[in-house]
């Protein structure tokens, strides 16, 4: 299956194509270069506009005194609610400290104590202080700055900005040998072209824009996962969408990217209260406000439903040094008319992170030869049913290094692309808002058979709204539509509540569902579902 698009009008070439310029994409590009391979780095907007720079909390790694990879592993497995791949988690936590040291060697500067030691803090689900942060609450921006500086210093990494990746190109053996892409705006490569390579790495980030409210930037339309689906690759765990519990509530008509109030704020001692001033989390979990994100998000939604409100409140008025520790969050609140030093902050859950994605092995290989995936685009199995806070940046660092090493060890000669005669699809971009609101209403934090069937019916109607005028908006809407299909189908199949998947009609967790839902899309657009057993630690 492929997007309806004009024939490519230009061609580019490199040893490896990396799609995406967040922590996963930038680190992959730099690691690939250590093996002497040329890189074409394709990014949808400007090279610094991905999700990474919005990461406030930090990077989790067992670097502190008394901490260990084993303890980090245990916390990750608890948050993952039985669906983590144990071997993938072991890779993450054991290779994580060295990956962070390499990031520091590349120029990333993290906050330190007066003694000069790196300052480590806690976030929800962690039983140890193991979160590195930079600029208080601007960790992602510092990571992005350091990696971009290294990329810009390397003339063998060619960066193509403002380029939306469309579909994979395959050779006669079915291996991916390049991509088609559309460069937006004026320039020597304006319009649709093709980039050829010996391997393609998808690091396009999240799919938060499939919902009406999200912490993700506007570019997060799941383009890499949708491309992989159309290429015949397996995707898994897509029903596990993490909704960040504390996103600044901007009113019932707000849509798109919303300001995030980092979990680190609760790590420093902030309280969640309802309209009556009650700290409702104390009755919900032994860790109260520091419970795993799914627990906190569900508790907030229950409070909102019970009190018939559209948000709860975050109280930071008692925290010393709030403006110094969280300058970005403080400025965001002030910009929206809230003084957190004297007022409660209205917060509600919004889509934040996809624990699932393109199914990959421990070296980032997808089920299609020549195609790799990394970061939020991938389902490596480390997150299971719910990502542990601040493991996302670490995943990008660790698995990008493994991908580069695997490519260098196995890379084959460039294949010749063959004509793709599969079915084309293009959805009317005017359907985007309808799709987003339907997904938020029926496939958001609160799910049931009735709500999911209603959303599925909406998607069936949207499917008939075809477009025959290829453009960026239509391609993005089509990607969102196909991702919405996958999410709703998997959410209907999983008849239990686990991690970040909450079914009101199946409120209990069931051992019957200790398995991964794996989906594929045929060249003619037919969905197939399989199951993968998950080894229990």
Topology (elements, then pairings):
Layout: E1 2-3, E2 11-13, E3 16-19, H1 23-33, E4 39-42, E5 59-60, H2 69-79, H3 86-105, E6 120-121, E7 131-132, H4 139-152, E8 157-160, E9 163-170, E10 176-183, E11 191-196, E12 199-202, E13 213-214, H5 223-230, E14 235-236, E15 241-248, E16 256-257, H6 263-267, E17 271-273, H7 293-307, E18 312-315, H8 322-325, H9 327-335, E19 345-354, E20 357-359, E21 371-373, E22 378-379, H10 391-410, E23 424-425, H11 432-443, H12 449-463, H13 472-493, E24 515-521, E25 527-533
Concise synopsis of the structure shown:
The chain has 537 residues and is of the alpha/beta class. Helix content is 31%, strand content 19%.
Verbal overview:
With 537 residues, this protein is α/β, with parallel strands linked by helices. It folds into 3 domains: 11-240 and 353-410, FAD/NAD(P)-binding domain (3-Layer(bba) Sandwich); 246-350, Flavocytochrome C3, Chain A, domain 1, CATH 3.90.700.10; 424-509, Methane Monooxygenase Hydroxylase, Chain G, domain 1, CATH 1.20.58.100. It is 31% helix and 19% strand. The protein has helices at residues 23-33, 69-79, 86-105, 139-152, 223-230, 263-267, 293-307, 322-325, 327-335, 391-410, 432-443, 449-463, 472-493; strands at residues 2-3, 11-13, 16-19, 39-42, 59-60, 120-121, 131-132, 157-160, 163-170, 176-183, 191-196, 199-202, 213-214, 235-236, 241-248, 256-257, 271-273, 312-315, 345-354, 357-359, 371-373, 378-379, 424-425, 515-521, 527-533. The relative contact order is 0.18. The model has no long low-confidence stretch (mean pLDDT 93).
């Amino acid at each position: 299956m492929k997007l309806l698009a004009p024939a490519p009008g230009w061609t580019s070439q490199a040893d490896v194509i990396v799609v995406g310029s967040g922590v996963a994409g930038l680190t992959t590009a730099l690691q690939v270069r250590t093996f002497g391979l040329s890189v074409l780095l394709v990014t949808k907007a400007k090279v610094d506009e991905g999700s990474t720079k919005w990461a406030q909390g930090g990077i989790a790694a067992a670097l502190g005194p008394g901490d260990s990879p084993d303890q980090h592993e245990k916390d990750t497995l608890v948050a993952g609610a039985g669906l983590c791949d144990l071997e993938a988690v072991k890779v993450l936590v054991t290779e994580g400290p060295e990956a962070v040291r390499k990031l520091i060697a590349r120029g990333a500067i993290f906050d330190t104590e007066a003694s000069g030691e790196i300052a480590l803090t806690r976030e929800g689900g962690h039983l140890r202080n193991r979160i590195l942060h930079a600029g208080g609450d601007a960790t992602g921006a510092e990571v992005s700055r350091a990696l971009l500086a290294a990329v810009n210093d390397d003339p063998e990494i060619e960066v193509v900005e403002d380029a939306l990746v469309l579909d994979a190109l395959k050779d006669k053996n079915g291996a991916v040998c390049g991509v088609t892409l559309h460069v937006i705006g004026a320039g020597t490569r304006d319009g649709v072209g093709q980039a050829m390579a010996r391997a393609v790495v998808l690091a396009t980030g999240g799919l938060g824009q499939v919902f009406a409210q999200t912490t993700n930037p506007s570019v997060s339309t799941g383009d890499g996962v949708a491309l992989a689906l159309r290429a015949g690759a397996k995707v898994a765990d897509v029903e596990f969408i993490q909704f960040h519990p504390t996103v600044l509530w901007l009113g019932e008509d707000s849509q798109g990217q919303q300001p995030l109030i980092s979990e680190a704020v609760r790590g420093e001692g902030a309280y969640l209260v309802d309209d009556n001033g009650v700290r409702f989390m104390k009755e919900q979990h032994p860790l109260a406000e520091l419970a795993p994100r799914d627990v906190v998000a569900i508790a907030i939604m229950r409070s909102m439903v019970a009190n018939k409100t559209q948000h709860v409140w975050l109280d930071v008025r008692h925290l010393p040094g709030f403006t110094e520790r969280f300058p970005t969050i403080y400025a965001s609140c002030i910009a929206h008319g809230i003084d957190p030093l004297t007022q409660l902050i209205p917060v509600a859950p919004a889509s934040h992170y996809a624990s699932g994605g393109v199914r990959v092995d421990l070296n980032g290989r997808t089920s299609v030869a020549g195609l790799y995936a990394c970061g939020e685009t991938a389902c490596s199995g480390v997150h299971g049913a719910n990502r542990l806070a601040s493991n996302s940046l670490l995943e990008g660092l660790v698995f990008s290094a493994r991908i580069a090493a695997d490519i260098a060890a196995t890379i084959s000669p460039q294949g010749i692309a063959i004509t793709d005669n599969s079915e084309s699809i293009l959805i009317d971009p005017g359907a985007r808002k309808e799709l987003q609101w339907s997904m938020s209403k029926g496939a958001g934090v609160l799910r049931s058979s009735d709500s999911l069937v209603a959303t599925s019916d909406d998607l069936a109607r949207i499917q008939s709204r075809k477009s025959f005028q290829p453009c960026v908006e239509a391609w993005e809407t089509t990607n969102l539509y196909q991702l919405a299909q996958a999410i709703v189908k998997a959410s209907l199949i999983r008849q239990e509540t686990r991690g970040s998947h909450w079914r009101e009609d199946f409120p209990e967790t069931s051992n019957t569902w200790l398995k991964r839902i794996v989906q594929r899309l045929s060249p003619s657009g037919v969905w197939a579902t399989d199951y993968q057993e998950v080894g229990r630690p």
